Amino acid sequence: MQQSSSLKKRIYCTILVTVFIWTLLLWDYFHGGVTSHHLLQNKDLPSFSNWWSGILLPLLTWFLLYRSQVRIAKEATSSALPSSFIAYFVGALLFGIVLSVFFTLSNQDVPFYMIVGLLMLALFLPIYRSECFLGFVIGMTFTFGGVLPVLIGTILVLICSILYLALRPMVLFVYSKIANLLHK
């Protein structure tokens, strides 16, 4: 029964994201054309059409929600969606939106400090999770399409996972050893 409920939720969310991205693409198409984005805003580097978002975002949503459901099923004792899932998703969604707004306003300082803050936060919270990645990508999609946020998000997820899963345990180990030496 829980498997069926999880599948339905994943289907609904994927349909919602699909409708969102195709509505955005059709709006762009009928209002000046679907744009392409160059890597690092450099015309010499390859560009990615926003049309790719119509395929990429539904597939990404389906995959990331599956990954989240598997992790939640292993961790949870009840079948309810944990509030941390929603908090991480909404937090990453808002982070992506705010980052996009400041980038659109040509303010380079705030996005830089946001990314530095995100990396600091990665030492304390598991923000490398699938729901964070999905929220971040969806939050930036309106401004950058789907491909660039996936590329940027992948890099951030890799860095954040290294910080949380590798560096954090080392720091905690050293801290515990120092604390033990001071208490002796």
Explain how this protein is built.
- The structure is a single chain.
- The chain has one domain (2-183).
- The chain is 76% helix and 3% strand.
- The protein contains six helices and two strands; from the N terminus they run αββααααα.
- The protein has helices spanning 2-30, 53-75, 83-104, 109-121, 130-144, 147-183, and strands spanning 36-38, 47-49.
- Helix 1 runs antiparallel to helix 2, helix 2 (53-75) packs antiparallel against helix 5 (130-144) and helix 5 (130-144) runs antiparallel to helix 6 (147-183).
Helix and strand topology:
Elements: H1 2-30, E1 36-38, E2 47-49, H2 53-75, H3 83-104, H4 109-121, H5 130-144, H6 147-183
Antiparallel strand pairs: 1-2
Name some characteristics of this structure.
184 residues; 6 helices; mainly alpha
Strand order of the largest sheet: 1-2
User: C-alpha Rg, in Å?
Assistant: 19 Å
Helix content: over 70%
The end-to-end span amounts to 54 Å
Return the average pLDDT rounded to an integer: 89
Number of strands: 2
